[in-house]
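Open question from group meeting: does this chain pack into something compact, or does most of it stay loose? Before anyone orders reagents, we agreed to write out a predicted structure and look at it together. Recording both the input and the output here so the notebook holds the full record.
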Amino acid sequence: MFRILCLDGGGIKGVFTAAALARIEKQSGARLVDHFDLICGTSTGGILALGLAMGLSASDLLDFYRQRGPFIFPAMSLVERSAGLIRQLFLGPKLSRDILKVELSQVLKDRKFGEAKSRLVIPTYDAVRGRIYIFKTPHHPRFINDVNVPAVDVALATSAAPTYFAAASANKDGRFVDGGVWANSPVMVGLVEAIAFLEVALADIHILSVGTTTEPFSIAKNDRASALKWNIGLVNLMFEAQAEAALAQTKLLLDGRLHRVNFMAQPDRFSLDKADKRSIADLTNLGWTEVEKREHTEVILEHFMSSPVLETYQAP
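Structure tokens returned:
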């Protein structure tokens, strides 16, 4: 089997993902990075993918999200939330990229992207050149451009959600926005990478995809909406629509070899930047309990964590 771990975007909702991954490592007694041939992550999932590949445990990453998440996504009063919405609509990003950079630097340190201990693909979008861009470890002779990019810069590039964080530079090259605008659920990115560049047969590919929770989603009330009424709802629409399409396409192609861990939450229960104590605690508990369900445990432990990868990745 060629095993791929794919981690969705979703801001502070990455607590759910981190908790699920931490419980998998605890159940199996093994590191995820040793059991997957390729790891893909977008936005908050990209941060988690980078952390795992740089040697951090999922438990370490969960602690980071739980402890530092409230600083990255500070709680706001009703007046502050209203001011933040006005800023998003008319003035600029709602949150500080500088704070995010400081916090990420505490865990990723000064490591370079090329130091990853696993093959990585991290989607983002180059706003200057107007094209998609994927940061890739040198797991193919052509992939040499990103080796010396600071891991922190890659994390900032993939997680610069429009209207929430300003676009980020990476090694002083380009201006990047959140990969979620085209690959919020990066399952197809991982699938194409394996087939087109690593020359893996489709029949050998197995994917474990972990979400950040979802909720019933509808745009019926916006069927005749103006641009102003749409406001930040457009960001949610991009993320939701892409994820649904990518998961459906991948499921068809893999014919039962895609396993998805996620949770359907009540409407408005969680959001990308809602990092209050209760939300973080609930996301943690949901991640733990969801992955412990028999429908997930049996598949994950038997098919993904039963043995390490046959060929350990080593950067050239």
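Observations to bring back to the group:
The beta strands are 2-7, 38-41, 120-126, 131-136, 168-170, 173-178, 205-210, 258-261.
The first strand starts at residue 2 and ends at 7.
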